[in-house]
Amino acid sequence: MKKFGFIITCLCFSLSVFPQQKNQKQQQKFTTTNKKITVYTTAANTKLRLTPTDNLDFTASKQPIETEISIFVEPSKRFQSFLGIGGAITDASAEIFAKLSKEKQTEFLNAYYDTQKGIGYSLLRTTIQSSDFSSGSYSYIEEGDKDLKTFSIDHDRKYRIPMIKEAIKTAGGKLTTYATPWSPNAFMKNNKNVLKGGKLLPEYFQSWANFYSKFIKAYNKEGIPIWATSVQNEPMATQTWESCLYTADEERDFLKNFLGPTLKKDGLGNVKIIAWDHNRDLMVQRANVIFSDPEASKYVWGIGFHWYETWTGAQPMFDNVARVHEAYPDKKLLFTEGCVEKFDAAKYQFWPNAERYGTSMINDFNNGTVGWTDWNILLDQFGGPNHVGNFCFAPVHADTTTGELIYTPSYYYIGHFSKFIRPDAVRVSTSVSRSYLSSTSFLNKDGKMATVVMNNTDNEITYNFIIATEQAIVKIPSHAIQTLVY
Description:
The protein is an alpha/beta fold. The protein is built from 12 helices and 21 strands.
């Protein structure tokens, strides 16, 4: 019996060790040997915009003391894989893009989608039918057409589809693209209006599920592969624009009884489904309800979220992202929308707008988020067009009277992530010793590490940058963001 027990023990030990050895072998070892650090900086009250500012050597690290500020990167501790960063091509963005000269269109596309000339966006969100950022409400079917016999995406062929195709081409032939509805048709809703909330009537659940399938197939046919769809944009908000309400139970039931099975039946089971697609405030409750139901959960890739919970005056709820991640580690987290509200042309270069992006992106990534999508990639000099007057900022604006493009600090802050952290990168452990700085790091497939550091204080800060047993001394200006590539 003792000998038999010994064999069992050895067998269990070998079964537990071999996968670990395999994983360790598969994990690419990162080293700083013979590497230099290239530092790129964007800073307020300077001309620095994604500008190379330093080329530093590593030296042997020493124990930092408490009066020093330090950032610690531990390359062997790795977390989520990176999907991408991008923005939304809305009707508004496409309409303004069409007004630009060919020269400015090329400049704009390169600025966002070219990895060398621009910031290398790799993710794209678009709308199913109209949103507030359209010149007016419209639909792909005639009102009352329950059977979707009149379904056509001809509306999108004028502006949106051509722009998306140009973006894909500039990005090298691929953009991970997902689409979101703002509202079903008026006849499908209890308020008989695409605007101002309302609910999807039960007798139209199947028609509406069929609608997603029709859209995805139509866009696929256009050469725009739809990677994912979300159930509903902001399902807990009665907006003055296109909106539709779902409680957590209602979204769960629509998912498991209609949308999930319909996509699968129509040969679209590979299309990911994103739940929630609203603010961080209620995302934990939504995840609990949907993911605790196995029949609903099996259809859902992950949770999408926005940053507008601050409309109440409260602070961003970054911890809720972490709570979902720790409770449902097999589900993905995707930031699906954020923009700076209440457009004011006097604030094009208002630095706190950019710092809002940097703070959110660092926190969201450190809490397990795999991708991050800005809202409109382009708006005009009025923060539109928007058919209900909900004018907002975009990272880039076009003055349609002069034809010029206006790059805001937000564009550059986003670029400090999207240009240097590429799809399939893996986040690695990064920590800071003082709250004056915030930071995140990703190891790219080519073996290069990118660490983003943000300083939103009024002071220049010198910090120890420590990777395993080596370090460098780095300076970051006040109100600045840096990416260290090594």
